[in-house]
Design a protein that fits this description.
With 522 residues, the protein is an alpha/beta fold. 31% of the residues lie in helices and 23% in strands. Strands 3-17-18-20-22-21 form a six-stranded mixed β-sheet, covered by helices on one side. Strands 16-15-14-13-23-24 form a six-stranded mixed β-sheet. A five-stranded mixed barrel has the order 6-7-8-12-11.
């Protein structure tokens, strides 16, 4: 069996085993009388989990013994307690718990830029914020097939990125630039990169790719320099990258957050198939409106006659008017949450089995107006939490891991903000929702707007990334409900629940599809 252990750990996963670690694995396999096939699967699970935990290339007996115990407990829990009840199957990740990894172009690897990320961060974090976005997008662009010539191929077919400082004295030549749009002077549009800035003339743009172009968004521009101004012929967003390509580029880097599962992807897929009851996604659930509570009762009653959904994702606002601290709103808001807990507890199968996730909106307490927004304070929620088996109040935005699925949830009236701050009008007659989805994914950021328009905590800008591209992106907006597929990402906006037609989305992980639904008004 030692040759099999070496084959899996050393040849396949590039891990080095100490002698006592090798003896430990051999003993466990012998004691359990595992066949070659079963031993191979078990060893691959161990090696894969060790790699995901970033425990290092040297496998020692002590940590390995703990991992063997954890994996054995994790796999047995699936059969003994049910696949959907295991803690590593459904995980909610707060924005403040996302790994603070920034890309370093000099080493071409992700590093920890700060000893500790803080809301009141240093000036260094502010200065690095947009440089980090630029570096992250540039490394993605350079890996794109249109920018990476293959040996012995026609190099004229591939594009070359230039920097702004290389344009001096080369008027009339064509260049392709990557940079950030900015208005450094009133009424004038500039492009910035790490090397400098140059004024843009976009009056004669002939070809414009789909997307929404705002200040602080990163673009590719093609054109030439005339009289110190870059005359733009074509402009577009950076090309996107599928999650598979990103994973292959950074195989052992956990950018999404959360602890790695103790199961292989095959095992997680099996759990998805066994419990494909869907997730319910609702936004703008105004608990201070009696009509909302009646609609929620109809919703829970409908699901009580079938298998409970995997999760209910409630997205704010949870009040029809802004919360005012120190007023009667404090007691009323807490009572509204308590009433929701009482309502859910009337349906015991749902309250015991389903996961409940609550994401705050702008009108919910508390927060300073910057992103990410902290969770709703426990003072308002502890009565509701005491009535449910699986409930999480989290930040805005947040991330959810379900089996092999990665889900990003963000509550923001994003379309209105971005349209209001566009520096180039989108093409007429096109679907503005598709423009928005493409903009967010191509930018790799949930809120590609200037800090003065929508501030982001400097040291937590990494929590706003959409990189790698998730399986599901929930952009809860007061715009009309929609679902869009782009770059293997399923993006949905459930629309307004309380002020609309009590609409919501059901998302089914196995088929990776969603269904728009609404509750009939009584």
């Amino acid at each position: 069996m030692q040759s099999l252990i070496y084959k899996v750990f050393t040849r396949k996963y590039s891990l080095s085993l100490q002698a006592d670690a090798l003896e430990l694995l051999s003993t466990v396999i012998a004691q359990n009388e595992l066949s070659t096939v079963d031993a191979t699967k078990w060893l691959e699970l161990l090696a894969d989990t060790w790699t995901k935990r970033e425990a290092g290339p040297l496998v020692e007996a002590g940590p390995l013994k703990d991992l063997v115990a954890a994996v054995s407990a994790g796999t047995s829990s699936v059969s003994s307690r049910g696949a959907d009840s295991a803690s590593d199957v459904f995980t909610v990740i707060s924005a403040f718990d996302v790994p603070p990894l920034w890309y370093d172009p000099s080493t071409k690897a992700f590093t920890h830029p700060f000893s500790k990320a803080e809301i009141l961060s240093s000036a260094e974090a502010k200065a690095s914020l947009f440089r980090q976005r630029y570096d992250l997008i540039k490394q993605r662009v350079l890996r794109n097939e249109n920018f990476t010539p293959v040996m012995f191929s026609d190099h004229n077919r591939f594009r070359t990125l230039s920097t702004i400082d290389s344009l001096q004295g080369r008027e009339g030549e064509r260049f392709l630039l990557l940079g950030m749009l900015a208005q450094l002077e009133e009424g004038k549009l500039f492009l910035e990169d790490r090397a400098g800035s140059i004024e843009l003339d976009v009056t004669n743009v002939g070809k414009r790719a789909h997307g929404l172009f705002t200040e602080s968004s990163f673009v590719l521009v093609d054109g030439c320099v005339e009289d110190g101004v870059f005359r733009v012929d074509e402009i577009g967003l950076p090309p996107p990258e599928t999650r598979d390509v990103t994973r292959n580029a950074f195989p052992n880097v956990n950018l999404f957050g959360g602890s790695p599962s103790l199961r292989t992807e095959v095992q997680l897929r099996e759990i998805e198939v066994a419990t494909d009851n869907g997730m319910v996604i609702l936004s703008d659930v105004w608990l201070d409106q009696p009509s909302t509570m009646r609609a929620l009762r109809v919703l829970f009653d409908g699901f009580s006659h079938s298998a409970p959904p995997i999760a209910f994702i409630f997205i704010g606002d949870f009040s029809s008017r802004p919360f005012v601290a120190g007023s009667g709103d404090t007691t009323q808001y807490r009572d509204n949450m308590t009433a929701l807990g009482q309502l859910i507890s009337e349906f015991p199968d749902i309250s015991r089995s389903s996961h409940f996730v609550f994401v705050p909106g702008a009108n919910d307490p508390w927060g300073s107006g910057a992103l990410p927004k902290p969770r709703i304070a426990e003072y308002f929620t502890k009565r509701l939490e005491s009535r449910l088996s699986h409930v999480t109040f989290t930040t805005n935005p947040c991330r959810i891991k379900y089996c092999a699925h990665e889900i990003v949830v963000f509550r923001e009236d994003l379309l209105k903000r971005i349209r209001r701050n566009c520096v180039l009008e989108p093409e007429e007659g096109t679907d503005v929702a598709k423009h928005l989805v493409r903009t967010i994914i191509d930018q790799g950021h949930l809120c590609p707007l200037p800090q003065r328009i929508r501030p982001v905590y400097w040291a937590y800008d990494h929590a706003m990334r959409v990189y790698p591209v998730p399986d599901v992106l929930v952009l809860a907006d007061r715009f009309d409900a929609y679902s869009v597929n782009y770059e293997k990402c399923h993006c949905v906006n459930p629309g307004e629940f309380s002020s609309g037609e009590f609409s919501f989305f059901m998302y089914y992980p196995v088929s990776r599809t969603s269904q728009y639904s609404k509750i009939p008004k009584s």
